[in-house]
Amino acid sequence: MIPKLKFFTIRRSFLNDLEKLKKNDQLPREIISSLGNMVKEIFSILFKNGFLRKARKGENNDDFWSSWQEHFDKCECHKYCLEKYHIIECGYTIQCKPSYDVDLYEQLGNNKHQVVKSPFMDFGVYTTKFMQELKKGNERSIMKALLDDNHWEEIEAGSNSANARYVYDFFIVINRYMGNCSMIEKSESIFSYHLVWPLLSLAVKTATLPIRNLLFKTGEVILDSSDETLKAVGVVELDGIEFCLLETSDAYGISDNSRFGKDHVKGSFGALMFLRKILKTCFYATEDMLCELKVLFVHARSKRIHLWSLEMPAKDVQVLEHLSYTDIPTNVSQVDKILNLGNFVWKLSDCLRKSYQTINRMKEEHVRYLTMRQLNPNNQSRVNLATLVEKEIQKPLKGSDYGIILPKQIDDFDLDNTVIPANKQ
Questions:
Q1: Using an 8 Å Cβ cutoff, are 155 and 210 in contact?
Q2: What residue ranges of the chain have pLDDT lower than 50?
Q3: pLDDT tens per residue across span 13-66
Q4: What's the half-sphere exposure (Cβ side, CA atoms, 13 Å) at 229?
Q5: CA dihedral defined by 269, 92, 290, 265, rounded to 10 degrees?
Q6: What distance lies between CA 306 and its chain's CA centroid?
Q7: Beta-carbon count within 10 A of 124 CB
Q8: Which pLDDT tens digit goes with each residue over 298-352?
Q9: Which of 188, 203, 254, 424 could form a disulfide with 348 if both were Cys (CB 3.0 to 4.6 A apart)?
Q10: Residue 364: C-alpha distances to residues 260, 282, 359, 361, 378 (Å)
Q11: How far apart are CA 287 and CA 289, in angstroms?
Q12: Spatial separation of the C-alpha atoms in residues 68 and 46, rounded to whole Å
């Protein structure tokens, strides 16, 4: 069987040869177009019928990413499109764009299934009791359920204390929010104040326990990573290095695709600024560590909150992956939405932890290399990561037609989730 990555090289070479014939007018354009479509269809059939195997670990991915780079070079996309910044949009629930090559897109992962880690599965009795009291609305009974002795023994001395603590902290946030949830439709600031900011604060707290070394800034935050003035609703940073951006698009329940699209582009652009700034700060970290780096973008819009990550798998290629989303509960009877929201924040905290740990390791590698270069002039040279982001990019322009570039999502009934305990690998 042919390796899939080798397949991209073969197909690309054939299509490039057809493009040369087209430019030199050696064959009628209609015939060349038909041949091109035929080649794509043949390789697509090979793909789907198992004649092409997956790449083995260690095989070179350059052919795959080169195919995406060629797509970017040929793309005649919308003036606000993220493809102008060489960003691929993909991930859970995200449909393949009409401009993308379907075979290339499918190699980026399964967009219909996700594994959800739930911190509530190990505390079913505690969770059930809290939900029952929350529905009744008696504050004294709610607090009694929250302060359950068995659960607090787990928090203080149990083997699963971090998860137990998170479940308690999340229920505290939910209890406060449910007393104000009717107000989140009034304005963006009220929406952020009563729900979005407390959830981000909880994710930051959970990610950094027992050492709190992250800073979550809220309000009209001017991004330090951008050369131009760019503001965000919230930013998470580690020692001055920004790596998670928050955008809230108007009040809860508003349906405004133009605003949603504008904020999606703005947030993605901000995440790209974060990535570039990290590479220019830790420019002598290793390329292996760069492959582990992900910066985050959280987008609260309409009745949902979305989580995206941005990474750089190859030079001049960025992947914006939709990791998860959650519906926002608006009353105490929506137990499924409350627990899904808790799972979402747990995932966000895990992503924050992994990101700041990677940044710390990149900083250490950078300093270690500079020190070794001083002590040993013959020390092996290393790629300067700042050279990977030399291309100038501009802040997105203002406009009214951003809605058409908002990524389209797969219908909920076509999606599938597997829920497992939070500690399960």
A1: no
A2: 1-6, 52-59
A3: 666 666 666 666 666 766 656 666 666 666 666 555 555 444 443 445 777 888
A4: 1
A5: 0
A6: 8
A7: 9
A8: 999 999 999 999 999 988 899 999 999 999 999 999 999 999 999 999 999 999 9
A9: 203
A10: 38, 9, 9, 5, 20
A11: 5
A12: 20
Q: Is 57 helix (H, G, I), strand (E, B) or coil?
A: coil
CA torsion through residues 349, 355, 358, 364, sign? negative
User: What 8-state DSSP symbol labels residue 317?
Assistant: E
Q: Where are the domains of the chain?
A: 2-60, 115-421
* 87-91/52-53 β-pairing: unpaired
Burial bucket for residue 148 (CB in 10 Å: 0-12, 13-18, 19+): middle
Residue 187 corresponds to which tokens in the numbers above?
A: 């304005």
**CA distance linking residue 336 with residue 304, whole number of Å:** 14
Please tell me the pTM assigned to this model: 0.86
| Residue 194 identity (one-letter amino acid) | H
User: 241-249 and 416-421 as β-strands: parallel, antiparallel, unpaired?
Assistant: unpaired
Cα–Cα distance for residue pair 306/393, rounded to 1 Å: 25
Among all chains, which residue has been given the structure tokens 């991004």?
Answer: 223
* Of 417, 406, 46, nearest in space to 255 by CA: 406
Q: 249-288: b or e for each residue (b if 16 or more CB lie within 10 Å)?
A: bbbbeeeebebbbbbbbbbbbbbbbbbbbbbbbbbbbbee
